[in-house]
Amino acid sequence: MTATITRGKPAFKPAFKPAHSAEGGQGRHALLFLLPALVGFAAFYLYPSVRGLWLSLTDWNLLSDPEFVALDNYAELATDPLFWKALLLTGYNTVLNLVGQITLALLLAALMHRLTKSVVLRATLLLPWLVPNVATALLWLWLLDANLGFVNQLLDAAGLDTHGFFNAPAEAMPSVAAVTTWASVGYVALLLYAGMLQIPSSVYEAAAMDGAGEVRTFFRITLPLLRPVLALVLVVSVIGCFQIFDTIAVATKGGPVNATKVIYYYIYQEAFTHFRMGYAAAMALSLVLILGVLTWVQMRLMRASDSDLG
Amino acid sequence: MRAGRIAAWAVLGLAVLVTVFPFWWMVRTALTDAHHLFSDNFSLWPQHFTWANFKRVLGLSSLAEAQAAGGSGASLDFVLYLRNSVVYTAVVVAVQTLSCAMAAYALARLRFRGREALFSAFVAALMVPPIFTLLPNFALVRNLGLLNTFAGLVAPILLMTPFTVFFLRQFFLSLPREVEEAAVIDGAGVWGVFWRVALPMSRGPLITIALINGVHAWKDYLWPLLVGQEEGSRVLTVALGVFLQQSPNARPDWTGLMAGSTLSVIPVLLLLLVFGKRLANSLNFTGIK
Fold first, then answer.
1. Which chain regions cross the lipid bilayer (chain A) (predicted)?
2. Does A45 contact B at CB distance below 8 Å?
3. With an 8 Å Cβ cutoff, are B257 and A111 in contact?
């Protein structure tokens, strides 16, 4: 490995060649520069990826030796109702989050874009994103407490029905989605706001000359020109939603009666509560494939929207 | 027209209120005497003000005092967990940023065989959800005997994360070559150019990526939950989870939990006060490129 890199065939024409280095002498430097990252990459990305693949073909309880079972784990996955339910719940949570996050974030970003450049406002909106999800979950566990939580007190005072929130099977997943939306909407709004700043002001001046109102300007100009940024935000949000774990682990533990057992939490439980590493690895690999397909589809959409803009 | 502007400001004001109020409620709960939490639950200001909750979660009160203040009597030492979190975050940020900057510089500026392939491999790693590598990584760290050690805690992200390499490489590509060439003419070696020219010129992006990595490390939960369960390596987020489990289900120790949560938010608030402008502006680069 060292030898091949050091000799570095001059097939590459160096665009920038420091005077001190002999022909191809950069290979040795490059290796030194890359060494720490390469060690990290090989040990904690490359090796575990291969091992994860292998693990998914075994039965392993972390104690005895892994036992090769070929595709048994995948066969079990196909008929495991909890796996499919976990996927459905993950999808449900993702849709709730996307609708909530993106509409609210668009509204906030558009308002900021037209009204104020205030850094204090932007920093404030970023606050929930900076806080550990564990603290956010605890905070909302208290605010949404079925009996004494502030939100229920507020509903009660207003003469409305109180809710179980995290304790009620039908309300638990939407409650989790609401909490994660609260935690990330400011961050998404700032990403969209940054995108809006890239739209040239001359476009807005032209719209104003034509007498277009604010709402019309938003739907006819801001939104279409923002599509590439929106698509990127969508990809990042979907990946984030599929990986929801902390909030679930603290607020609901997958309950009540599996009502919030999303895929990440199910994988975690199978691996570290039931010690079924092989089965968990098979689920994790399925998740890799699902996310890969989703990302690919979204990238295609993003490219389509780019070409629309010409 | 004017009514529209007022309505728009009202919506922004509401957003700020919804953002900030839960934090106020957290602090207000943490400063309320546990015995009076439920009787004056609706007042915006603590009616029975006390520092006792902070004292007991920081392990500064005796067992009897802690129990009198509403605790379960389980030993709590958030000073230790706070310290663990700070050390974890600081080590990860310092080492990872430097290591990734070196790799990114090589990938952006140095010529060597296999450069494109290596970069593609890093980008591919960016697409893999962390849980897939987490299972084998846990097995690896366990086999190395690193469970419940700082080394095990930092191992997977210490030397590189694909995103940091990717982010810094983009920036190094945009640096003007003339400055580097001038340094070379002055007799600087590759390391000298990197250390004295490229790094100082990249101060902005370096601070940005360090802040982002710092926030992520501070928020980390799943890996520290698996690897750092014992006191010596338990970070704040894990400690909060453990605290919740110790607290009775029927009547959770809300005042103590909120005091602990407040402690995990204070460093973030400080960060926002010092770097607020940079953090708010940094999103221009990170999300959209």
1. 30-47, 91-111, 123-143, 172-194, 225-245, 277-297
2. yes
3. no
The nearest alpha carbon in chain B to A249 belongs to B241
Q: Closest Cα partner for A215 from B197, B20, B7, B250? A: B7
- Tens digits of residue pLDDT in B64-120: 777 777 776 666 789 999 999 999 999 999 999 999 999 999 999 998 888 999 999
pLDDT for A64 equals 86
**What ipTM did this prediction achieve?**
0.91
CB contact at 8 A, A29 and A12? no
Beta-carbon contacts of A64 under 8 Å, excluding residues fewer than 6 positions away, are none
Inter-chain CB proximity B131 and A267 less than 8 Å: yes
Q: Decide: helix, strand or coil at residue B129.
A: coil
**Interatomic CA distance for residues B169 and B71, integer angstroms:** 50
For B35, what's the count of Cα atoms within 13 Å in the CB-facing half-sphere?
6
Q: Is A298 at the interface with chain B, CB within 8 A? A: no
Residue in chain A lying closest to B220 (CA)? A132
* Phi, psi for residue A303 in degrees, rounded to 5: -65, -40
What distance in Å separates residue A205's CA from the closest CA in chain B? 17
Instruction: Give the C-alpha separation, A19 to B268, whole Å.
Output: 47
| A121-163 residue pLDDT tens | 999 999 999 999 999 999 999 999 988 889 998 998 899 988 9
Can you tell me which residue has the tokens 């961050």? Answer: A187
- Listed by number, the residues of chain B in 40-79 with a beta carbon closer than 8 Å to a beta carbon of chain A are 41-42
Mean pLDDT computed over A70-97? 95
Q: Write down how long chain A is.
A: 310
Interface contact A127-B136, CB threshold 8 A? no
- Contacts of range B6-15, beta carbons closer than 8 Å, 24 or more positions apart: B8/A111, B8/A114, B8/A115, B9/A115, B11/A107, B11/A108, B11/A111, B12/A108, B12/A111, B12/A112, B12/A115, B12/A116, B12/A121, B15/A108, B15/A125, B15/A186
Q: Does B14 touch chain A (CB under 8 A)?
A: no
* DSSP bridge partners of B32: B49
Count the Cβ atoms, other than its own, within 10 Å of residue B31: 20
A12 touches chain B (CB under 8 A): yes
Count contacts between A and B (CB, < 8 Å): 307
Query: Does the beta-carbon distance from B25 to A143 stay under 8 Å?
Result: yes
Using alpha carbons, list the distances in angstroms from residue A120 to A136, B170, B274: 21, 29, 12
Tell me which residue in A44, A190, A239 faces B280 most closely, judged by beta carbons. Answer: A190
For residues A295 and A235, what is the distance between their CA atoms, to the nearest angstrom? 6
Query: Which of B8, B16, B115 lies closest to A121 in CB terms?
Result: B16
CA distance B254 to B69: 12
